[in-house]
Structures are given as structure tokens and as C-alpha cells.
Design a protein that fits this description.
With 83 residues, this protein is mainly α. The chain contains two helices and no strands. The protein has a domain of 54 residues.
Length: 83
């Protein structure tokens, strides 16, 4: 999946900007870039947790709906026979 790779790249960006900030290189720019990278990491983590929640909910609904749909389709097939 692509999300762990993106998370790793942003983590490297975050660490690089924090190290540059601590060493005194373009402090204002590194502080802004570091806060943006940190916010992006948080938003990706939030997105992944919500996405997994939705997937789990849809799988649970699919199982309950799928079993009742299968039963109703087999019943409707029997009802359609007029021989």
C-alpha cells in the first residue's frame, strides 16, 4: 500500500526540518515546514483510522446484507417457478 511509504517520506522530511531547525539553519522556514509536515502526518493518521473504520463497518453490513440477500434471492427463485 502507498500510505506507509508516504508516511515514511513525510517522517524523513519532518526529522530533516527539525534537525535543520535545531542546528540553526533557516530557523523560521524550518519551523514552518516542520509544523506543516507534522500536521500532514497527523492528518494521514486520522484519515487512515477513519478509512479503516468505514471499511470495517461496510464489511459488517455486507455480511449481514449479503446473507439476507442470498436467502431472499433463492426464495424468489423458488416462487418464480410455475411448473
Amino acid at each position: 500500500m502507498l500510505i506507509p511509504f508516504i508516511r515514511g517520506v513525510i517522517m524523513c522530511l519532518f526529522l530533516t526540518t527539525i534537525i535543520a531547525f535545531v542546528s540553526g539553519f533557516a530557523r523560521v522556514h524550518m519551523a514552518v515546514l516542520g509544523s506543516l509536515a507534522g500536521g500532514l502526518l497527523l492528518s494521514i493518521s486520522f484519515f487512515m483510522s477513519q478509512y479503516e473504520k468505514v471499511l470495517a463497518t461496510s464489511k459488517m453490513e455486507g455480511r449481514t446484507t449479503g446473507s439476507s440477500t442470498a436467502a431472499s434471492s433463492s426464495n424468489s427463485g423458488e416462487r418464480a417457478k410455475t411448473d
